[in-house]
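note to self — DONT lose this again. spent like an hour looking for the file last time. sequence + predicted structure for the chain T wanted, 155 res
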Amino acid sequence: MKKAIFPGSFDPITLGHEDIINRGISLFDEIVIAIGVNAEKKYMFTLDERKKFIEETFKDEPKVTVITYEGLTIDLCHKIKADFILRGLRNPADFEFEKAIAHTNRRLSKIETVFLLTAAKTSYISSSIVRDVIRNHGEYQMLVPEAVQVKIHKL
């Protein structure tokens, strides 16, 4: 069984994340979306809200589960017996950053990182851009899944 972890803060999940996960479903038997907890970071959405956004977005996909974690991603991989880390790449800067992490993870463990290029139609979307658009009352709806839109609409 091929199990992959897709780690991130998902603050919030974007259409770019959703695209990578949907395309990863055909490659893996299971994808565990792992929301990392970083005490140093200030989040727009609570951990529970971020988890619910993802669970709602993938409620009809049995291959996807959502968990939260602290610590090293490779330690989580060992704990839940995942052999792969799934990551999306939007641009060359993402590649350079992710490449260094992937090399480190492989050096520290036998975990392989699988990179998927984001779709052209979502390659410009990042969670930080989405947060900025939301903070400034811009039109964020075309950047995030419906579960996020519903929550923000209620605010």
